[in-house]
């Protein structure tokens, strides 16, 4: 778990650093998309920190072998991880959408992009508050000694969140393709551009690959033992999203590689 959750944000941080260099030092046109991806990276690093902390308090061990104080800490770190994980996802989506607004001047497309942005923000607010207040009082998420509490169905909440997350990813990946297809460019350049922007579809594929691990986690009573694969796929998902968002911005640094686009 530690190897993957450290390696992925490291690569994401490298590409984000190159992006910032390109935007601040080379083209000198940094924008909201760059600010959003910076927040996404910080949240990704926060996700990594919480995952590493979980390994110290029971992640990967059978729940029967985890001491109660450690289990309490593990659940608190898991709760925090859900929050920063979703923040990272949200700001990556917003970064891509801001990038669309930077590139495409067509009014209908911009209206569609603002609409999708509104949907993403509404989804993000729902997910943030539903994660924070999974249990009321909040401490009941990790402190099972609290008797008077109300908790949501975590499995249903997780499945609803995953479904909405994948839906918005698909919409974002497909959004610019009709506009790109209409561009008066040679077929090779047009398809190259479509390929670059369709990179967002990789996140959808990873989300699908994450589903079996998530299903095992949700249906298991041995959650500490079954969580590592879900944690690994979650780390891959958010960091690949950041990487894909950064790649189109690196054209000025690697003109030969991006020449076809």
- Examine the secondary-structure arrangement and name the CATH architecture: Up-down Bundle
Radius of gyration: 20 Å
Write down the CATH topology.
Answer: Rhopdopsin 7-helix transmembrane proteins
Helix content: over 70%
Structural class: mainly alpha
Count of individual helical segments: 9
Whole-number count of domains: 1
Overall pLDDT metric: 90
Query: Which consecutive residue ranges, at least 5 long each, have pLDDT under 50?
Result: none
CATH hierarchy class name: Mainly Alpha
The number of E-state strands comes to 2
| Strand arrangement in the largest pleated sheet | 1-2
Run of helices and strands: HHHHEEHHHHH
Q: Report the span from N to C terminus.
A: 36 Å
Task: Walk me through this protein's architecture.
It is a single chain. 73% of the residues lie in helices and 2% in strands. Strands 1-2 form a two-stranded antiparallel ribbon. It has helices at 2-26, 32-55, 68-103, 107-132, 154-174, 177-181, 187-197, 201-219, 223-246, and strands at residues 135-136, 150-151. The chain has one domain (2-250): Rhopdopsin 7-helix transmembrane proteins (Up-down Bundle). The protein is built from nine helices and two strands. The mean pLDDT is 90. Helix 1 (2-26) runs parallel beside helix 9 and helix 2 (32-55) runs antiparallel to helix 9. The protein is mainly alpha-helical and 261 residues long. The protein is elongated.
Task: Give the arrangement of secondary structure elements.
Layout: H1 2-26, H2 32-55, H3 68-103, H4 107-132, E1 135-136, E2 150-151, H5 154-174, H6 177-181, H7 187-197, H8 201-219, H9 223-246
Antiparallel strand pairs: 1-2
Helix pairs in contact: 1-2, 1-9, 2-3, 2-9, 3-4, 3-5, 3-9, 4-5, 5-8, 8-9
């Amino acid at each position: 778990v530690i190897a993957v959750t450290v390696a992925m944000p490291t690569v994401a941080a490298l590409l984000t650093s190159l992006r910032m260099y390109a935007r601040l030092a080379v083209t000198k046109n940094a924008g909201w998309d760059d600010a959003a991806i910076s927040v996404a990276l910080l949240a990704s690093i926060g996700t990594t920190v919480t995952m590493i902390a979980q390994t110290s308090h029971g992640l990967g061990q059978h729940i029967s072998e985890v001491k109660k104080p450690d289990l309490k800490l593990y659940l608190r770190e898991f709760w925090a991880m859900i929050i920063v994980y979703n923040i990272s996802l949200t700001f990556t989506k917003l970064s891509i959408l801001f990038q669309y607004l930077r590139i495409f001047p067509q009014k209908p497309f911009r209206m569609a992009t603002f609409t999708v942005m509104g949907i993403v923000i509404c989804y993000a607010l729902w997910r943030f508050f539903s994660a924070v207040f999974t249990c009321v009082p909040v401490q009941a998420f990790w402190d099972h000694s609290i008797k008077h509490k109300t908790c949501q169905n975590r499995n249903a909440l997780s499945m609803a969140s995953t479904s909405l997350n994948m839906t918005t990813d698909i919409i974002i990946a497909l959004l610019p393709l009709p506009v790109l297809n209409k561009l008066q460019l040679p077929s090779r350049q047009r398809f190259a551009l479509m390929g670059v922007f369709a990179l967002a579809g990789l996140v959808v594929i990873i989300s699908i690959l994450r589903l079996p691990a998530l299903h095992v986690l949700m249906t298991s009573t041995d959650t500490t033992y079954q969580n590592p694969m879900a944690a690994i796929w979650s780390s891959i998902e958010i960091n690949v999203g950041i990487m894909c968002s950064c790649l189109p911005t690196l054209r000025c640094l690697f003109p030969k590689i991006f020449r076809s686009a």
